[in-house]
């Protein structure tokens, strides 16, 4: 497939954005039916769906060979490929739109080989357009006025420390679990006085739209913006606009200097003659990287909606006395419940699932519960033997994952695992929600699908070969790895470093 002409795409997207903007501003949100996607603060309206349908129809007619990914038509298991793909959010800032707050926009992006190459973001309520083309810069137009190159300042100031920065920060629609707790803790750390251990940033701002926040950074109106939990359609267009304005997009978790467009955790910094990396590293240092351990436990806690008192300790220092009093062996992760000390991530995860009936698994006392649990754990055991153990062996010994070894894994997946996944919708056993199976194997699936660090001796096309050789398994694995309860803990740099440490030992 040949790539479309980027200028032609840009011009068409700009016209399309203006046309869609007329539909958006003409709608009365008070008269529209509303649904919720995640919870009562994650809204979708008739207008979202109508605008996406209009955009899809126009793009399909003009560029029939270009793939399409849209927020309202996305289905679990859909993944972005290297082929040219339009990535669309019909209304970014739906909650603002519903409340009549004039910060909502249409976000139209084109990605090729996983890289945003054209971006158009239009806020029709303020008649404010942002656009960019890879290699050609980005610009802003307000109310039909002249094009203004981004950043708006022709001589942007250097970046300094967080205490001089205007920081974009959203609480998001997900209001439970470790990800939300991290956001709350980070807000305190960023805003608190230095005497109270904070960074005392200059100020924080929240526009209620990831795309508009990114464009504000591109324009130089914000210095830095942190986002966790959004999707490719929230960031694709803004990403192109930002980087063409000299800004930088990195991962929202510490150490991720080269994030994937679907990583769902982002940190962007405005263009500046100096100080970008310094500001990024200072922001990351405030996070501490502490949310990447116990990934199976966090997935289960997130799915159950269970609140726990979580304490993180530095594994590189001796265990503190207070910890050894409740856990003499000093093992992590550890759960203390009803006076019991429970260790090991998978054991804790299963213990939590055993405490209440949920979509993850039935209780053993329920009809079919025992048989279901046996089937779940049998599959997990087979997955471990067929996939996890040979892949981990190659990673931890630094040995090469040869074509012969890969073919053996792919063959065993097809003959043993795929028949058990034929009913996945998209999760194990025909479930539309995560099960205990995905909670236990999901973190490793995210590793084998996302880890691309070159010092691990895997074929460069290992993931694409997996998709080709075992498509049923790959579809299920992708749906699992991309699920928010699994993906929110993923960080390539920290996972890779942890594996390197084991290799050294």
Automatic annotation (TrEMBL):
Biological process per Gene Ontology, one example term: inositol metabolic process
Ranges of residues in domain GST N-terminal: 281-360
Pfam families listed in its UniProt record: GST_N_3, Inositol_P
Cofactor: Mg(2+)
Statement: the UniProt record of this protein carries the keyword Secreted: no
UniProt cross-references to InterPro entries, sorted A to Z: Glutathione-S-Trfase_C_sf, Glutathione_S-Trfase, Glutathione_S-Trfase_N, IMPase, Inositol_monoP_metal-BS, Inositol_monophosphatase-like, Inositol_monophosphatase_CS, Thioredoxin-like_sf
SUPFAM superfamilies: Carbohydrate phosphatase, GST C-terminal domain-like, Thioredoxin-like
Reactions that this protein is recorded to catalyse: a myo-inositol phosphate + H2O = myo-inositol + phosphate
Positions contributing to Mg(2+) binding: 71, 89, 91-92, 234
Family affiliation: Belongs to the inositol monophosphatase superfamily. Belongs to the GST superfamily.
Name of the protein this chain belongs to: inositol-phosphate phosphatase
Source organism of the structure: Ceratocystis fimbriata f. sp. platani
Name of the gene encoding the protein in the UniProt record: INM2
């Amino acid at each position: 497939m040949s790539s479309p002409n980027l200028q032609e795409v840009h011009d068409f997207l700009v016209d399309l954005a203006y046309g869609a903007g007329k539909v958006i501003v003409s709608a009365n949100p008070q008269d529209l039916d509303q649904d919720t996607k995640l919870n009562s603060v994650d809204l979708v309206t008739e207008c979202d769906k109508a605008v996406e349908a209009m955009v899809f129809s126009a793009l399909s007619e003009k560029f029939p060979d270009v793939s399409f990914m849209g927020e309202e038509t996305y289905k679990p298991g859909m993944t972005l490929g290297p082929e040219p793909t339009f990535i669309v959010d019909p209304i970014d800032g739906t909650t603002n739109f519903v409340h009549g707050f004039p910060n909502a926009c249409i976000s139209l992006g084109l990605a090729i080989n996983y890289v945003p190459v054209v971006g158009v973001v239009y806020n029709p309520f303020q008649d404010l357009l942002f656009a960019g083309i890879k290699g050609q810069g980005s610009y802003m137009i307000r109310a039909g006025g002249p094009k203004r190159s981004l950043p708006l300042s022709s001589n942007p100031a250097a970046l300094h420390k967080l205490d001089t920065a205007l920081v974009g920060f959203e609480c998001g629609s997900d209001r439970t679990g470790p990800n939300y707790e991290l956001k709350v803790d980070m807000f305190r750390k960023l805003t608190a006085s230095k005497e109270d251990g904070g960074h005392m940033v200059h100020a924080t701002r929240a526009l209620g739209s990831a795309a508009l926040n990114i464009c504000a950074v591109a324009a130089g109106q914000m210095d830095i913006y942190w986002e966790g939990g959004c999707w490719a359609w929230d960031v694709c267009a803004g990403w192109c606009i930002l980087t063409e304005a000299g800004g930088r997009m990195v991962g929202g978790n510490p150490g991720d200097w080269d994030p994937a467009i679907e990583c769902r955790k982002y940190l962007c910094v405005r263009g500046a003659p100096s100080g970008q990396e310094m500001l990024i590293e200072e922001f990351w240092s405030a996070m501490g990287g502490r949310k990447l351990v116990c990934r199976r436990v966090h997935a289960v806690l997130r799915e159950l909606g269970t609140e726990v008192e979580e304490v993180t300790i530095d594994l590189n220092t001796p265990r503190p006395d207070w910890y050894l009093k409740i856990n003499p062996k000093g093992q992590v992760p550890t759960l203390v419940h009803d006076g019991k000390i429970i260790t090991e991530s998978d054991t804790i995860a299963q213990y939590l699932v055993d405490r209440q009936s949920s979509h993850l698994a039935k209780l053993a006392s329920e009809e079919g519960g025992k048989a279901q649990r046996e089937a779940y754990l049998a599959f997990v055991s087979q997955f471990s033997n067929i996939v996890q153990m040979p892949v981990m062996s190659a990673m931890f010994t630094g040995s090469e994952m040869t074509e012969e070894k890969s073919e053996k894994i792919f063959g065993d997946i097809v003959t043993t695992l795929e028949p058990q996944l034929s009913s996945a919708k998209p999760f194990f056993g025909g479930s539309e929600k995560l099960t205990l199976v995905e909670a236990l194997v999901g973190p490793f699936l995210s590793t084998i699908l996302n880890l691309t660090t070159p010092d691990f001796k895997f074929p460069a096309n290992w993931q694409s070969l997996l998709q080709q050789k075992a498509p049923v398994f790959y579809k299920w694995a992708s749906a699992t790895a991309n699920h928010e309860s699994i993906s929110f803990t993923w960080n390539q740099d920290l996972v890779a470093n942890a594996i390197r440490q084991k290799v050294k030992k």
